[in-house]
Amino acid sequence: MLISAKDSERRARHTSVRRARHRNPVSNDSFAKGFEALGQVALHGVQVSARATDLASGTVLFSVDDHVVMPTASIGKVLLLVEVAARLGDPEFGGYRILDREVQDAVGDSGIWQHLQAPSLPVADLAALIGATSDNLATNVLLRRIGLEAVRIRTESLGLKRSGLLDLVRDHRGPDDAPQLSVGSANELTWLFSSLARGEIVDAVTSQRVISWLSLNSDLSMVAGAFGLDPLAHRSADHGLLLVNKTGTDAGVRSEVGVLRGPRAGVSYAVSTYFDDSQHSTRLEVLDAMRTIGFDLLEYVH
């Protein structure tokens, strides 16, 4: 996906080096390696926002500029899944309702449906494709049926003010398009996933549907790369670990939000980065820092 000139100017402002606000109330050492790693990438011009909370107590384990609104790429698709899940009880919009893909829905990058022959799929299958592979084509087909306005209303009803799905998925973003697919703050995203895990988003049935779709996610390339799980099969406990997560990837954007449960504790976490992606080494440094946070989370829950 290409970035407009306006977005490039916006990125230049966002990635200027500034002192991040850190908070680590658990202990001086619990997330020391993660703080150091994020601090290093921030010194190199990467904008960072992160937060983790204990799933049972709500205690803030660490935070770095968690109030800042960041580009989150495909993470906003979770809000679409919430709306879809909430509607499945409606006979006019059941899980078996068949939706056709049309020419205007076509888009590349992530997802498997664009490579399949089936021209139509049930609503629930489209949601599963989004959960498993962040399927862009499935996202656009569902958005055409539901509408961005409905997703916005649902988002606001949840009390989210700094997070949202802004647009459908596009191969190219022009000056009249939203500059990002979605935005979010780490504060709100950790709350959203904690609430999903507790069955509090809309109702228990809706929350469980969303969790079930997200548990299929095959992208463990960021924070979750530290957990040692099978990317293609981690819906059941593995060494006492259970993960539900969603990632967002775009040029200069790497973002992840999730819930990790372990034998000792559970956490909800969000880490977002925004950077100049002109050098491959910068991207690798960002991913390494995100995995370092993952190792800290793993140590906390295991």
From TrEMBL:
Q: Name one GO biological process term.
A: beta-lactam antibiotic catabolic process
Q: Where is the Beta-lactamase class A catalytic domain?
A: 52-273
Q: Which Gene3D superfamilies match?
A: DD-peptidase/beta-lactamase superfamily (3.40.710.10)
Mark out the compositionally biased spans (Basic residues): 11-23
Region feature (Disordered) = 1-23
Give GO MF terms, alphabetically. Answer: beta-lactamase activity
Output compositional bias ranges, type Basic and acidic residues: 1-10
Tell me which PANTHER family the record gives: BETA-LACTAMASE (PTHR35333), BETA-LACTAMASE-TYPE TRANSPEPTIDASE FOLD CONTAINING PROTEIN (PTHR35333:SF3)
* Protein name (Swiss-Prot/TrEMBL): Beta-lactamase class A
